[in-house]
Please model this.
Amino acid sequence: MVITTILATTVALQRWRWKWYVVAGSVLVFFSIDLVFLAANLAKILDGGWFPLTIAAVIFVLVTTWRRGRKIMSQKLNEKSIAYENFKMIIENQKVTRVSGVAIFMSSSADGVPFTLVHNVKHNKCFHTTTVILTVVLEDSPYVFENERIKFESKGMGLYRIVATYGFMENPDIQYILQFCREKGLSCNLEDTTFFLGRETVIPSDKPGMAIWREHLFSYMSKNAARATDYFNIPPNQVIEVGVQVEI
Model:
């Protein structure tokens, strides 16, 4: 009940933009009742109440560590991406071989060229005639309107940027995205498409961000996290993973 009152206060101040004195008056009324119940139940902590509190604390640490770690790792990966203009210069200056076929490079960021595509060009010296950079964005809303689902943009040289948006109650559908690409004139059947995914290896360090024990915890959680192929329902035999070490 106390937590609900705190959350309601936060929503009233930050989302509803109520005046602080209006919120303070309401909060005092509810807190005067809630705190009495809380004080009366504090004695139960030593008689077994500590157990659910401990479970809640462990879950809280896991969730916040994962969220903070993903944010730091996304920032590090974005630093490895390059602008489209610089990528085009690499293609032109290094005389990269164009190979037939369709390649989809998954990227967590909707800006720039991901490190998976940059590494493929630098090390394999090839660039597919049809290359798609695909970013799947999850919104805070449960569902997204179909007319806002996919944004399509051509970057030239056979390079395309697609941003697919889904709600947290929806599952990304790679077949639907490919169907959208075909409607835009791209020949990209699932059976003939190669997917390039990043495989990050997290290396804990003493850099600012998280406590070292949380970095080790995040590294362990990353190793045991579900693969993107399962989440996006991509055939595993059509996936090439590009490894990268991320020091957080």
